[in-house]
Structure formats: C-alpha cells, structure tokens
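Sharing a chain and its predicted structure for anyone who wants a worked example. Both blocks are below, sequence first, tokens second.
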Amino acid sequence: MKAFILAAGSTSLDGVQQVELEKPVAGPGEILVSMKAASLNFRDLGIIAGKYFGGPVQKDTVLLSDGAGEVEAVGEGVSRFQVGDKVAGTFFKDLIEGPANPMVNPALGHSADGVLAQYMVLNENDAVKIPANLNYQEAACLPCAALTAWHAMMTAGRPVTKGDTVLLLGTGGVSTIALQFAKALEAKVIITSSSNDKLAKAKEMGADLLINYNEHPDWDDEVKKINDGQGVDCIVEVGGIGTINKSMNCLGLGGKIGMIGVLAGADGECNPRSLMMTGSSIHGIFVGNRQMFEEMNKAIEEHDIHPVVDKAFDFDDAVEAIKYFKSQAHMGKVVINIS
C-alpha cells in the first residue's frame, strides 16, 4: 500500500516521503480500515518541523491524525464494528474517557503512526462511527480540530448554551467548526481575523460580530465595544501566550477560556489578575476522549452540521496540500483524498 511518512529525525518538508508499505492485517480486537480522506492540523506543521512535543520523530512515522474510511475487515472478537461501517480513528489511543496522558496515550501522526495511508489498523476501542450526514472528506475533519472545539465549548466548565456569547480567534479548522457549533446552540459569535474576506465568509456562516485584528490591534477593547460593553462567556483560544492576556480581558463574569493552541507564539508572560476580577477560568484543552467524540457526533447529526472544507488535494499531492495549509490561505480545513 502507499503511505506518506515523515522520516526519522526530519525537521522539514524534505522528510515527507511517499513509500510502499505492506498492507496491514486486523488482529484480535482490531479493524482494518480502507482510508478515504485525511485532513491537516496546525499540529502537523510542528511535527514536520521537529518542534512538536519531544522534538523530531524518532522513527519513520505515517503522518496526520485526522482521517476517515471504511471498515474492510474485522479481527477476532470485534463487537463494535462490522465490515462496511464508516469510521474515524480517535486522536489518542486507549482513551475512552477522562483526560489524556501523552506518556500513556499515543497520539496518531506522532507517537503512533497516523492516517495518511491507504490502509490502517485500529483497535476497535480507538475508533468511532462517523455521523451519518457527513461524507468522508467532512468526517476527516473531526478527530482533532472539531473535537478540540467541542471539548472547549461543551465539556470544559459550563457548557455553552443559548444566549451565551462566544469569542473565536481566527478562521482555521478549530474556530470554523466552533462557529458552527455555537450557532447550532443559538449563541452569539464574535470572530477575529486579519482578512476581511474571511470575515465576510464567517458572516455568511452566521457570525454576529466581526473584528479585523490588524485594523484593531487592541481587539480586546473592541470586543467589549461592539458587544454593548459586555464581556464574553466562552473563548476558544487558539493563539496561546501571544493572545491570552487580551483574551482574559474579554471575559465576562464567570466566563471561561478553552486554552488550545500556540498560533501566536509560545513565549511571553501571562497575568491572570483579570480572572480573579471576573471569577473566570482557563481550561487546558488537549483534544479529547472517545466519549466526547461520540457525544459530538450525535450533535453533528442532530443539527446537520457539515465541517467547512476549504480545498481538497489528491493523495499524490499531499506535499502540495501541506504547503497550501502552511500558507494560511485557507478558511476551515484542508483535506487530502486518499481513495
């Protein structure tokens, strides 16, 4: 079978190689999945650059964490799936409930082989059935980005409910699906971007209030200005230390921040005084467990939510897909068709 690997020790795109590997076989308790589509996350760029947790990969590693496919065979004792089921793997292995422990729970595409291959074997406990309303491209957007947004909004702290105000930073995969979740819940959405074109698209998707952070460098002041002087209830914080102080300034009484990414850098200082003044909280979000994934999928079906696929590339063009993703020209998700 064909697969894309990152060669051991690599720290650049030069280490991304298409290779021929032996087609795997499902053992006891395992399912063999014919992979149909995969999607990219910001995390993947860090892995390729050798800057993700633990540094460069120590062995040749099949890339990417997010993918969907069809069960082609089941091993002895499998009870959760049958041949023909449409499935996605979970980001972490061996994590049905509770928080992830990276020392115990390997993550696809880094400490464990990922999904950018024509076939992969998963333990039946490390997979879920995809929502019936989604195609493979859309379902490939769920395991990391969508589940991260769901965890931040619905599992960490008080769940977002009708009438809440949600602040989203940027228009990448996490923020775009978070916008869709928020509107399904009838929440008000404030979203930021450096692109007025992307803000216009977000408006078409239902975003209520828009902020171009290049035009408004003090965007935290702008949030309250355009929101009738009020703080927000939930922030899906993908910027990290580079934006966290401004995000804390945006919180209303009892608000929460789902701390997710490092898009705005990993260095700086954080002053949590504003949390004390508003009785707010910050929750560290490291994707999520299988139980959360299954709950999210029910909501996706119920509200007929379809993740935004910005662009899809052919399997052989995976490197071009990575380059396009790195350019940040996309809004939503970048997908690679596998078969």
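Comments welcome. The longest strand covers residues 30-39.
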